[in-house]
Amino acid sequence: MISVYDQGPPPPCPTPFNMAAHVLGRADEMPEKIALSVLAAEDWTYHALKAAVLGTATGLLRTGAVPGNRVLMRLGNTVDFPLAYLGALAAGLVPVPTASALTEREVAPMIATVNPVVILHDPDVACPPDLRIVALDDLRAMRSLPPADFHMADPERAGYIIYTSGTAGSPRAVVHAHRAIWARQMMFDGWYGLHQEDRVLHAGAFNWTYTLGTGLMDPWTMGATALIPAAGTPATDLPDLIAGHRATIFAAAPGVYRQLLNQPDLPAMPDLRHGLSAGEKLPPAVHARWEAATGTTVFEAYGMSECSTFISASPSHPAAPAVLGRPQQGRRIALLGEDGPVPLSHEGTIAVHRSDPGLMLGYLNAPDETAAKMQGEWFLTGDQGSMDAGHQITYLGRNDDMMNAGGFRVSPVEVESCLARFDGITSVGAAEVSVKQDVSVIAAFYTAAVPLDEEALRRYAEANLARYKQPRLYIHLPALPMGANGKLLRRALRQQFEAPL
Length: 501
Fold this sequence. Notes:
With 501 residues, the chain is of the alpha/beta class. Among the domains are: 118 residues, Rossmann fold; 96 residues, GMP Synthetase, Chain A, domain 3 (2-Layer Sandwich). The longest helix has 17 residues.
């Protein structure tokens, strides 16, 4: 038998279609129900949420933008982020959310590539000066405008663009269709076990795509209540918030689970059914500690910017801690070798069939790069795994050197290209290294005539790289390991560092 999962396609996406209309499709049925609670700060009913979204859509159109135009989002960890995102989608505009941690140097090429018609800007978020900027106060004032109509059209049209770092070093703009939200219903049973009565507490910031999807869009599509901690809430406060606000599902990155468990006693959380984790593999030891402390389990999911999450464990299909889970119902997933699907239990590249409604349209202005990710009818993720007879998939690592920082994938080439400009560095390599059990960080290995001032290196990285991309270790070496073809061996850097551990 070969490593292919195909249990039939999901129902076709309706046409005409609008992503924001789909997310808010139940708002009129339950106008007074709380759709969003920013804990200890503010509550939003479904009626208020829909009105603010459609008012924002009107305001964005009044700037002169027309359907199909792009809107760059430089907004912080506030409710402004999802309101602007859905408002742009409702109007038929193409929102481009970006991480608030990015520096002006990192944002400038994004603006040049995307060429947005407007830039939504929170003054506390770095952004190069630009005549197209819409200030935060003006954006907020749009909420009270008369509602726009949802722009209903082809579900295959561009809906939104998100950025991901690529192995070549420069961030890649990933274009998704409006239909991408239609694919997410496969997660409701395949990962979340989500119901309309649920109260989903997501520990992430508003402006993180994991929060945007799992913490907001999906609960709202179901008619559930989203709970988001106020900005600056420490992880150690989350158990009390889960208990006090009667959260039934908790979602976070593995690092948050680790921090949350670093306290002697956790309060009882009687309404909590289970946790969700994504972004990187949850260490089995952390998983076991959570189960022992709470009496609930954590269901993990695997995905990527190009296709969100499509392999997961769930209440109806739990998985062993070492296993990713199984493809969600409606997906078509394969493990590929050079000649196609590999036999069961053999290592192959995890691949998604091009018919998946959640798969990207492509990389913006990069048709050759998009084509390079395809093998026939399959999109190659770049991750290795194996599939058993029950279609459970075990993750076996990446076939490149991508790093993971708190759930964000980071290209070593991007970090290296930045540090190579620092005066005195003659060569540099970046790698993710383990510093203790279940804890890894980004390390920069460099050559120079003498060891350089580490504080100066840190200040330089802070000025030029988003925080999650900044190395935590700087290690001076006499030479970097190179292959016979002169290529830097990043895995050798990692292995050399971790050998004494």
